[in-house]
Amino acid sequence: MLLLACEGVIPRFDVALFADTGWEPRAVYANLDRLQAHAERAGIPVRRVSAGNIRTDARDPNHRFVSMPLRTLNPDGSRGLARRQCTSEYKITPLKKAARELLGYPHPRRVPPGIYAEQAIGISTDEIGRAKDSGVRFLRNTFPLLDLGFDRARCMEFLKERGFGSTVKSACVGCPFHGNAGWRWIRDNDPDGWAEAVEFDRAIRHGYPRAAEQGQKLRGQYFLHRSCKPLDQVDLDAPPKRHLQLLAEDGDPDGCSPWSCRSGAAVDQPLAA
Predict the structure, then answer these.
(1) Which terminus has fewer CB within 10 Å in the chain: N or C?
(2) Where exactly are the structural domains of the chain?
């Protein structure tokens, strides 16, 4: 979508915002650096906004509770999904804050009625059901890819035509919505990220430090992998059973995107054959 704006196919942006959780794969940051240089040559500044480093914050006992959708293994053997607010805290909130500042009305100043920014969201035609309003008066979402009739295949083709075919999707290294394919990619392409994920997975087995210090009773164990096994003990190369193939391999196939983020299927729900 940013490349389209650079070429003038869609209206040029005044600014492009990237919400950085602080724990993306190295390849994402490398692509962002390249894209930032490309966009700025076209007169579009790329600004990174952040509410902190989600990995560091989750391990910090002095930081308030970080709600990641961790996989839970209950004492009775059932599985579940922990409460999730990470998309709101680390993506939507800093983006809204930046938008207010760009409009000239930083919090707590009230944005007057009729003052708003148009915010382009990159949802393709095969994801039209994910197109949502921003939920605030000072942001009006637009969906340029829908207007152009771009589906996922056309997006990938467009990227390849312009030398960006190796673009890696944005998602936290330690996102519990990764399927086996996503975990394999991190293991095989981002060894430092893989080591961080394995270490983080061990560290959160008995809950977040903040919760433990406050005496919150843990009802089970926490894991990053949907199998509720230690990440470095999961056989990521084993072919899944046929009826579980899509779930086990892909997990949440579209990563994590503000205003269009999939919540993933809770692992304690029945799986369709």
Answers:
(1) C
(2) 2-250
